[in-house]
């Protein structure tokens, strides 16, 4: 074994065999934002075998206070996070095989993504709650272990979930879901590090053959509270997912054309051709690159992505979002 990993190998419970296992593990990280980028950095430094990272966002200045490895140059160039991250990670450890997937993760493509990349384990780096129930279903269906991680405000939660459960659905009542989001409530960077570290700790236990801790970890990086709750008793014997194997989200894929996002933002989904045809819209293109176009219309700022998604900032309600959507669809006809 190379000198490079000597210090972690000297930790007995991990040891040579844990390192060997890690180097033969393919981890898929869903999301390359705050949690995903930190998990990716730690795993790359530790010498994971293969990393596949999925994300659809570009680097923005407002990400830089909490997201690992991104810098001002990436934000100025509007680089996709996965592209910027892959480049940085490869400088840190060229032994790791890194695949960047610049794609939105939805219930219409998640199964194809799993079938295409065949990861051994999934790490949660998503920033909205609903998608995690989808991850919960796909992981149970394919018997993939996954590590749930979430952070908002000063609070974080981590839980490693395997096939036997209790799964995320079992814990519905226990896990603080709420509509809290980073854009509304903000987030303190230290809690990101704590959650990402705990996610990687669960992964280390798993690769070392100890299995997940089966503890729900909760932390508050401001009040300085840290708790570990034993979850074994919380298995729901009627759970749709980990008992009955019913995958409601996966089996009824549906995609909304208009979705409320964090703060005053909406996500609008257009036909893919939008990206090449923004000239038809009554907008001013402020900046653009092969991945994204930033535009202005009235008091709104919008970013259009190659797949036809548009993030609109500065919209007050769903009605306004719908009116804008319909107007733009007409322009494209
Ligand atoms: Zn369950």
UniProtKB/TrEMBL annotation:
CDD domains named among the record's database cross-references: ThiF_MoeB_HesA_family
Pfam families membership: ThiF (PF00899)
Gene Ontology MF term list: nucleotidyltransferase activity
Domain THIF-type NAD/FAD binding fold span(s) in chain numbering: 5-241
Alphabetized Gene3D superfamilies for the sequence: NAD(P)-binding Rossmann-like Domain
Native source species: Staphylococcus casei
Keyword annotations: Nucleotidyltransferase, Transferase
SUPFAM superfamilies reported in the protein's UniProt record: Activating enzymes of the ubiquitin-like proteins
Protein name, as recorded: ThiF family adenylyltransferase
């Amino acid at each position: 074994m190379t000198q490079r990993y000597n210090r972690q190998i000297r930790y007995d419970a991990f040891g040579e065999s844990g390192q060997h296992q890690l180097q033969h593990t393919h981890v898929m990280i869903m999301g390359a934002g705050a949690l995903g980028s930190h998990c990716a950095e730690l795993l790359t430094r530790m010498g994971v075998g293969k990393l596949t990272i999925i994300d659809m966002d570009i680097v923005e200045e407002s990400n830089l206070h909490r997201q690992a490895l991104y810098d001002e140059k990436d934000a100025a160039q509007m680089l996709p996070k996965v592209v910027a991250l892959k480049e940085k990670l490869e400088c840190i450890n060229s032994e790791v095989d890194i695949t960047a997937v610049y794609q939105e993760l939805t219930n219409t493509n998640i199964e194809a993504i799993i079938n295409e990349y065949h990861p051994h384990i999934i790490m949660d780096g998503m920033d909205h709650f609903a998608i995690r129930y989808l991850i919960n279903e796909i992981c149970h269906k394919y018997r993939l272990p996954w590590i749930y991680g979430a952070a908002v405000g000063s609070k974080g939660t981590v839980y490693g979930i395997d096939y036997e459960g209790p799964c995320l659905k079992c814990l519905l009542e226990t896990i603080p879901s709420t509509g809290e989001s980073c854009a509304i409530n903000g987030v303190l960077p230290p809690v990101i590090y704590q959650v990402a570290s705990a996610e990687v700790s669960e992964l280390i236990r798993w690769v070392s053959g100890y299995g997940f801790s089966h503890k729900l970890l909760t932390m508050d990086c401001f009040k300085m509270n840290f708790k570990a709750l034993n979850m074994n008793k919380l298995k729901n014997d009627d759970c749709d997912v980990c008992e009955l194997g019913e995958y409601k989200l996966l089996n009824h894929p549906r995609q909304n054309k208009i979705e409320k996002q964090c703060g005053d933002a909406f996500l609008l989904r257009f036909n893919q051709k939008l990206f090449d045809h923004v000239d038809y819209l009554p907008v001013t293109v402020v900046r653009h690159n092969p991945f994204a176009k930033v535009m202005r219309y009235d008091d709104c700022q919008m970013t259009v992505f190659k797949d036809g998604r548009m993030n609109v900032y500065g919209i007050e309600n769903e009605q306004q979002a719908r009116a804008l959507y319909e107007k733009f669809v007409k322009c494209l006809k």
